[in-house]
Amino acid sequence: MNFIKPHPPANTTYELRLNVPLLFILPNPSRTDTGVEANLLYAGVDPQVHEEHNLGEEEGANLHQDEEHHDYKAGGHSHDERWAWMQTEIERINTEQQRQGVEITGLRNDVLRGNRINEENNQMLRNMMQHLHLQGPPYGPQ
Amino acid sequence: MASRRMGKEPASSSGGPPSKRQATLRNHDIEFNTPEQRGRYKSLLSKPLHPCRYPDSYSMNKLGIRDNAYRLLSNLGWVELLRPMKRFENFTYEFLSSMAFTKDRLNFDNPDHSVSFRLMNIDYEMSLEKFCLEMGFANAGFIHDSWNHDLKPEAYNPATFWTRITGLTHYNSRSNKASNIHNLVLRYLQRVMSCTIWGRKEVGTTRTDELCMLWAMLSNNPVNTCYYLFDYLASIGAKFDNRAEIVVGGIIMFIARKFGVG
Predict the structure, then answer these.
(1) Which of B59, B139, B152, B225 could form a disulfide with B132 if both were Cys (CB 3.0 to 4.6 A apart)?
(2) What is the mean pLDDT of chain B?
(3) A17 strand-pairing partners
(4) Does the distance separating the beta carbons of A34 and B64 come in below 8 Å?
(5) Same domain assignment for residues B69 and B125
């Protein structure tokens, strides 16, 4: 999956990501110039990994924004190894989502019961809900 | 002493059939030529109408792809076509409800395609060649008709080209994800086409036409732009599916301006 996102820390430039790993910082006319045949297909990107992605474009981009960087050299892994890595990665994400879901439920229950939660927890709750594309609670004391 | 009834609407306006003026306003000022046009207009009204989205120079500059993208667009003569247009609603309904594209499938060497449509209640009927002339496009170049794959240019193979720009060996003309395209300029141009010429809400999948256009831009091969425009607009106008959405207003405004009515 190909997408661009602001390049930290200043976020004044952008970066092109392909199948999650960072490809290069934009602008970079020498790498985007369509007059160069090599720029039509960037080497070192595994198309098979790419083919498995069925996420919507924007949703996919958002999901990957805060994930850790997984880079692997082309040709360094066999297809089986890569497939095993993908399955492990999917399991890891599922587990993490379940854990966050439980945590969110707990925090929301606290709010519904009238228990005040501190601002740090509140911010964490909002961040997690944003990450999971959920509507967060309104700001301010409940 | 003023009557208490003064200033009230006449009784006939709140009940009974609408006045002629109200009906005209509701019909986007369109005077229907045929019952068929009225039927298509009613069908179109049930579909959401969305504005086109155009290439943004600021963003392209920021990404460092502006010159490259415009160079590819100019290969097909599309730079003027993709300038932002506004106030498109009336023209869109009138054009789509009235248009017809008659393809000459009998004469392959010198086909006599014809088009007809209404704009500002004026009927237009002409050959595709004349239409191209009015629009400033050449009535020449490649046509890759999705209904007739024999028409595609000899040097163009969609599956091979798809592999060339994505690295994927699997090609499916109905589900080629645009996000698989590696090069940022090509990806951007595919998005531009899916928001204007082949305007639609679902922009994640690459149409075969768009793929062909990317190939034509890269290889600097001319295409018959007007054929593609009419082919797609006719398919939008003829759709009776309420879930379909209309995202081609900007292109119709471009046509209207070329005919001096927009």
Answers:
(1) B139
(2) 84
(3) A3, A22
(4) no
(5) no
